[in-house]
Design a protein that fits this description.
Blueprint (H helix, E strand, L loop, with lengths): L5 H24 L7 H17 L10 H21 L7 H27 L13 H27 L1
Helix pairs in contact: 1-2, 2-3, 3-4, 4-5
Amino acid sequence: MPEITLLGWFHTALGIFALLSGVYALARYKVIAFSHLPGKLYLICTLVVALSALGIYNQGGFGIAHVLAILTLLAVLVGAIAEKTNVFRQFSPYLQAVSYSATFLFHMIPAITDGLRRLPVDDPVITTFEDPLLGKFFMAFLVIYVIGVALQMLYLRKQ
């Protein structure tokens, strides 16, 4: 496993803070929104984390983590347009929820991958990207994302 760089430490620490802010925003407000302080912190940190991910090349070049960073940037953009404008009309709050929540999913995929490949330090849980445990985590995160978005849709529909 490659050593973690200073950029990697910054990226990881800010990513953890972003996720904590996002969990708080969802628990408190039921949706992530730039108009709420926790949502604003989550989205700003998420942008910085995605941009910093584009500068990390410890796996030998452009890879899936870079693709997820680009998808994160696009999801934040779409969510912001949905939140700040009326371009999508009555679908705007729903698209905002789907987009901003997708960024949470995009955080979790590289986070769990890197975490399981690095920890515990002397004997990581997984050693290859093909480990079936990793696929199970990805599937669990996808299911949690779908359930979370469905709950947000129900909440928004009641508003």
